[in-house]
Amino acid sequence: MNWFEALILGIVQGLTEFLPVSSSGHLEIGKVMLGVDAEKSLIFTVVVHGATVLSTIVVFWKDLFKLLKGFLAFKMNEETAYLLKIVVSMIPVLILGFTFADEIEMLFTGNMLIVGSMLIVTAALLAFSNYAKQQEKEISYVDSFIIGISQAFAVIPGISRSGATISTGLLLKNKKDGIARFSFLMVLVPIIGANLKDLMDGKLSGESNISVMALIVGFSAAFISGLLACKWMIGVVKKGKLIYFALYCFIVGSMALVYYFFFR
Q1: Residue among 27, 1, 2 at smallest CA distance from 160
Q2: pLDDT tens track for 159-202
Q3: Which helix (H) or strand (E) holds 93?
Q4: Do residues 218 and 10 lie in contact, with contact meaning Cβ atoms separated by under 8 Å?
Q5: Residue 240 to residues 3, 98, 107, 183, 235: CA-CA distances in angstroms?
C-alpha cells in the first residue's frame, strides 16, 4: 500500500465511520478496487479506526468531560446512569468479540458477496427508520441493550454500525439528537478494546506491505474526514434525512454484487 492508496482509504474510513453507510464495507470495497492485500492490511485498519476514535473524542470532549466528572462524584446521578447504559450496550458486542473473534476476522477478506448483501440490509434498516413515528423518549436500559445487539451485528462488513444503532434507536422511538450522541459514544470502548486485543494477540506484528508514511497519511486523512463527518451526521439525524443514505447503500451494495457475480 502506497501513501496515495492510504490517503483514499483513510478518507473513506473517516467519512463512512460516522455516516450510516458501513466503514468496514467501504474499506473492503476500497481494498479490492485498489488491489490491496486485505490479509496484510490489518494494521492499517486498526490505525484508521484509532483515528476515528480520536475524532469522536474531539467532537464530544465536553460530553465526555461532563460524564467523567459526574461519574467521579461516586453517586447515582444522570451522568453515572448514562455511562451504565453505555456499559449495557457493550455487552452483546463483547460477548460476540470474545466468542467468535477468529470467525469475525475471516469476514474481512474482500468478499463482495457479503459486503454487497449487508449494504442492502443496511439500506432497508435506514429506510424503515426514516419513516418511523417519533415519540421522543429517553434511552432506557432495555433500549441500550437492544441497540447494543444492533452494534454486534455491525461487525459484519456492510452492516453500518452507526446506521444500525441509530436506526434501532429511532425505531424504539428515542430522541433523534439523543440517539446520535449515544451511537457515537457507545463505540469508543469496543473499538479501543478490539485494537488492544489485536496488539496483545500479536496480530499486528506479522507480515505487512504498509510503510510508516502510509500509516501516517491514512491516520491523518481518517481523523480529519472523521471530524467533518461526525459533526455533519448529528445534523442529518436531527433533520431525519436518512432515506438518502438508504438509497446510497442500496446502489453501492448492488454494484458490489454485480462485481462479485460478473467481474471478479
Answers
A1: 27
A2: 998 899 999 999 999 988 889 899 999 988 877 877 776 666 65
A3: helix 78-99
A4: yes
A5: 37, 35, 32, 15, 9
